[in-house]
Structure formats: C-alpha cells, structure tokens
Write a structure and sequence with these properties.
The protein is of the alpha+beta class and 153 residues long. Strand 4, helix 3 and strand 5 form a beta-alpha-beta unit.
Length: 153
C-alpha cells in the first residue's frame, strides 16, 4: 500500500466537504453540524501557510482521507506546537494503518528536522479507536479539558 500526501487545493473543496461532513456525522456531540467551512479553511491556509495546511491523504492513487494541521506557540510547553485539528480516513481505508502511518510520519519528520516542542492530537472521549491509536504511537492523554465559547455564529 503506497500512501502519499499533498496540499489540498480549492478544487478539492467538494471532496473535503463530503469527508468533513462524514467526520462530523460520526461525532456524537457534533451531529448538528451543518455549516461546512472548508473553503474558508483552504483560503485561510493558502494566505497563512506558516500557520498550517490542509493535506489530502491518498492511498495507491485513491483519495483515502484528509488532515488539517495547525501551528501555535505554547507558553506552557515553551515553544511551537504542531496540532492536528482533524484527521479523517474514509471507512473503506480504515484499519489499514494509514492514520498511524500519518502520525508516525509527523513524529519522524519532527525528530529529523526539529522545529516543534510537541505534537497535539485531539479526539472525543468516546472515540475509542482514535484514543487507542494515539496511545499506540506513544501519545499519552492530557488531563486538560477544552472549553470553547464561540464568538461568531
């Protein structure tokens, strides 16, 4: 299985919209999510590539998923952090190691070209597969809770 990654482009918006809606449909707390913002996300990262990117994940030439990556400064950890905002693998490609390979690549790239003090992954507490995956790559669960108040509707 040959997995590759490329920067998403505006022409990928339709596929990204479908996948992101599938992702949010699987998350119990986001079943009401109907406003897809993928075009705004693509445009933002095109204009601010130093802050992150949207990656298309392909397997043997077929679209297998996507990831949205962001960068931020952490006072707590004393440097730049790499965050994975979303990582979605289509159902027919799951359990084939694509998500683990992606995370392993992020870690290996960072170890060979140090730029970040850490990598942050996020999953809902009821997403047992994601939580097992994160544990398998040596990422312990953080005790911090996230509280979000949206300021724009």
């Amino acid at each position: 299985m040959n997995t590759s990654y490329r920067l998403a482009r505006l022409m990928d918006a339709e596929e990204l919209t479908i996948m992101s809606m599938e992702l949010y449909a699987e998350i119990n707390s986001r079943k009401d999510f109907t406003d897809n913002k993928i075009v705004a996300t693509l445009r933002f990262y095109e204009q601010h590539s130093n802050m992150g990117e949207v990656l298309m994940i392909e397997c043997d030439g077929d679209l297998a998923g996507y990831s949205i990556i962001f960068r931020f400064w952490s006072h707590e950890y004393g440097g730049l952090m790499l965050g994975v905002d979303e990582l979605y693998i289509k159902k027919k490609f799951r359990r084939s190691g694509i998500a683990k390979q992606f995370i392993d690549l992020l870690i290996a790239t960072e170890q060979s070209h140090p730029q970040f003090v850490g990598i942050e992954l996020e999953a809902h507490s009821n997403n047992t597969l994601a939580n097992k995956l994160f544990a398998s790559v040596g990422m312990p669960q953080n005790n911090n809770a996230h509280y979000i108040k949206l300021l724009k509707q």
